[in-house]
Amino acid sequence: MNATRPQPVLSNAISTASATGRLHFANLRQRSLLTAKLRLVWVVVGFAFFALTAFVRIAQLGLGAQNPAEGAAGDGLAPPRAEITDRNGVPLARAFPAYSLWFDPKALGSKGLPLVKTPEEVARALVQIFPSEDYDDLLARLKAGKGTYLRRRVLPEEANKVFALGEPALEFPREIQRFYPQGTLAAHVLGFVDADGKGKLGMEAYLNARLTDKAHLSEPVALSIDSRAQGAMEDELAHEMLLTHAKGAAGIVLDVDTGEVIALASLPSFDPNRSDLADNDHVKNRATNEVYELGSTFKPFTIASAIEAGVVTDMAVRYPATPLKVDGYTIHDHESYGATLNVPETLIHSSNIVAAEIADKLGGQRLRDTMIALGMNQRANIELPAKGFPIWPRGDWPRLRTMTVGFGHGLAVTPLHLAQGYAALVNGGIWRPATLFKVDPAHASAGRRVFQASTSARIRQLLRLIVVDGTGRSANAPGYRVGGKTGTAEKAGSNGSGYKNKHAVIATFAAAFPMDKPRYVVIAMLDEPQANQSTSGQRTAAWNAAPVVGRVVPRIGPLLGVVPDGRRDVDVSDLTPLVANGEGE
Amino acid sequence: MFMTARRLRSMGWIATLVVCAALVMVLAFRVNALRSQVHQSQARIIALRQETMYLETEFETRANQQQLKAWNDVEFGYVAPTSAQYLDNERQLAAYAKPIEPDAPAPIRVASADDSVVAAAVFPAMVSPMTGKPTGAADDSAPAARPTHEAADAPAARSAGLATLSDRLGTVPHAATGTHKAGKDAKSKLAKAKPVKDKASKDKLAKGGKASGDQASGGKASGDKARHAVATRTAPSHDRSASGARLAGADTHRRAGVGHASGSPLIKLALKDAKTVK
């Protein structure tokens, strides 16, 4: 038993030992397996990680990669403010990193003097480089010891000169600013951008939201202006202004079929590149903001209205042309052209008396309706913020008012009103709002009919006759078939105090060309032109405003697609026999 | 051994993992390298565009309307062209050709809607240079060789029952098989035929063609009475141009090629032409 006793023990021990060993092995195996599995898991996780990384990267590159055009390059190219171009894509306003002149008093260290030379010397040298700067003002700013702009816009050559002064405190940071490559050209149309980047005046103000809209920064806005026509108009007006010592001038070229403003000039002008100087009298826009009594240029409206109403049916009917007394006032002409005048002669000689008589026959209501249809009772229809409100006689017009409006007095409008009215007169009778945006001819505004096409045709003949035989002869650019009407109106005194100064006149010439199929209306207006040798001692529109049109038309006609043709003209043969030659106002 | 194998295997896995990681890194590096290249290019594009913009702006500024006007006033003095300087068409341009002087040879009419004169002119039958027999009997198989100009004239003439120029050009016999070659052949034979047949008349005509645009050589041909008559009759006609003269020259050659069989009909033709021009 004993012998056998331990057996179980031994066997037990052995079995235990073997069981333990087996267990151990089993454990070991299990552990090894676990380790292996764990490692395998790690490997799989590792692979999965790399696979995922690679996949994510590929996905990121494939899907999320930035389009170069929209990415860094796109951001770098988009200007902070969109460009403005003319109708042919010539940039008129663009963002440009221009130099400015900054005074940094700490450039030489915070201790000691900020300048190498004395502030007086530096200020003097700066005034030599920039003659428009004020010495005292510069000196004060240099002495103040504060970092400040000495000048917002510096040309590279000026920057070189300032650099040559050898003052490290004078720095030229390049800042993106609004730049107008054409200088003063179309300044009143464009306006300018102030130091805070806000558009002021003109299209810069009107388009401020569009020009700063992030989505459209790289798309320029095309205006209807043609910079070449604008240049020619400004140039000729400035020339005439100098010759006649006029206070100011305005000029408009308007497309009669679309209402696009091809040129809009107001002189004297200002340089939008110098926004600090813009806050002066020159920013006044004479073409759209100032209202004037435009005188005899209104007579064609009266005649057209009378033809339309059936008051004038026969061009040969003669009206008395002796001074006319109405309500204590005497309406008289510049000079006497005989006892009677017919309609063509009335326009050719610019007779106030006959125009007043026709207006009287027409009646205040109908003349008023025509003027309202031509938009003369409201602000000019254009995008510019500077739009003058006409001086419009309210209520029913008494007889005298009707008669004075008949020859262009007692109603003051802007030259743009006149241009729109003339466009309606000659284009077949459709009045359209003016616009400064380029218009596709197929999508031009439908407008509203003011005159019948037949009336318009008759007016075209009459306007052409005025240029061939009448007061507009100096506007007769050969081959361009110009037609138009002069107007010289005495300026009313301030606060409606009547016409005191006979020498202060507004001389206007309203024209259209080519008269056989009018394309453009051209208005030239001079504010207080003086009589001198260059105008043969005259101050009427025939001697100053009409020659401007005569010089502008040949310059702009070919650029705008009007080819001169000496063998083509409006047929005025039915009117010519009715006219005896003479001069008028 | 067991452990070693396992370890080896796991080492293998790790190695594979490392290799994969390395590959991913290489990929990442390459991608990044490429990206930075793209960025560099973009930056360069921006810089260049900016530069272009600066230069463009500078150009626009220096050449702005007022500046150009100032230059023009001082340097050039250009003025707007007058209406007389504009031409509507070639015909108006032609009016500027030098007037034809007396004794100049007949100007040759270039273009006219009325081709009855050409159609009515009875041309002598063309003789084949190959066979020596009059052509026109055999084939009509070389339409490609016909110049389009003559093709247009053909119907009117056919209706008149006459052998037109194109008919006769089309019926020049040829040995070549291909149509194109046949056309070439026909032309070259025609070209050869010109000097052979009637050199004298062709020379005169060539001189005439030149002289219509050149006064100096006009005198040379003054011996020919017929031509003299034509010239005086057409002298006042200013409706001739330099380009017209050039075309006339070409036309002369064409007709010379046609009329070489006998010289005189051409003169008549020219006379008839001159009458119709009148």
Write a concise keyword list for the protein shown above.
heterodimer, A: 585 residues, alpha+beta, Penicillin-binding protein 2a (Domain 2), Beta-lactamase, 2 domains, 5-stranded antiparallel β-sheet, 17 helices, 21 strands, 37% helix, elongated, B: 278 residues, mainly alpha, 12 helices, disordered C terminus
What does the model show?
The complex is a heterodimer of chains A (585) and B (278). Chain A has 585 residues and is of the alpha+beta class. Chain A has helices at 6-64, 72-77, 119-129, 135-144, 156-163, 187-190, 202-206, 208-212, 227-244, 299-309, 343-349, 352-362, 364-373, 399-406, 415-426, 453-469, 541-556, and strands at residues 84-85, 91-103, 148-154, 170-171, 174-179, 192-193, 199-200, 221-222, 248-255, 261-267, 292-293, 319-320, 324-326, 329-331, 340-341, 412-413, 430-431, 448-449, 483-490, 505-513, 520-527. Chain A is built from 17 helices and 21 strands. Chain A has two domains: 74-222, Penicillin-binding protein 2a (Domain 2) (Alpha-Beta Complex); 230-272 and 287-580, DD-peptidase/beta-lactamase superfamily (Beta-lactamase, 3-Layer(aba) Sandwich). In chain A, strands 1, 2, 3, 4, 5 and 8 form a six-stranded mixed beta sheet that branches. In chain A, helix 9 runs antiparallel to helix 17 (541-556). Chain B has 278 residues and is an all-alpha fold. Chain B has helices spanning 2-62, 65-76, 90-94, 116-120, 148-159, 165-170, 179-197, 199-211, 215-218, 225-234, 242-259, 264-277. Classes of the chains: A alpha+beta (585), B mainly alpha (278). At the A-B interface, helix 1, helix 2, strand 2 and helix 9 of A face helix 1 and helix 2 of B.
**Biggest sheet layout of chain A:** 6 strands, mixed
Poorly predicted regions of chain B are 138-278
Mean pLDDT of chain A: 86
In CATH terms, the superfamily of the largest domain in chain A is DD-peptidase/beta-lactamase superfamily
Write the layout of secondary structure elements.
The complex is a heterodimer of chains A (585) and B (278).
Chain A: H1 6-64, H2 72-77, E1 84-85, E2 91-103, H3 119-129, H4 135-144, E3 148-154, H5 156-163, E4 170-171, E5 174-179, H6 187-190, E6 192-193, E7 199-200, H7 202-206, H8 208-212, E8 221-222, H9 227-244, E9 248-255, E10 261-267, E11 292-293, H10 299-309, E12 319-320, E13 324-326, E14 329-331, E15 340-341, H11 343-349, H12 352-362, H13 364-373, H14 399-406, E16 412-413, H15 415-426, E17 430-431, E18 448-449, H16 453-469, E19 483-490, E20 505-513, E21 520-527, H17 541-556
Parallel strand pairs in A: 1-8
Antiparallel strand pairs in A: 1-2, 2-3, 2-4, 2-5, 6-7, 9-10, 9-21, 11-16, 12-15, 13-14, 17-18, 19-20, 20-21
Helix pairs in contact in A: 3-4, 9-17, 10-12, 10-13, 10-16, 11-16, 12-14
Chain B: H1 2-62, H2 65-76, H3 90-94, H4 116-120, H5 148-159, H6 165-170, H7 179-197, H8 199-211, H9 215-218, H10 225-234, H11 242-259, H12 264-277
Helix pairs in contact in B: 8-11, 10-12
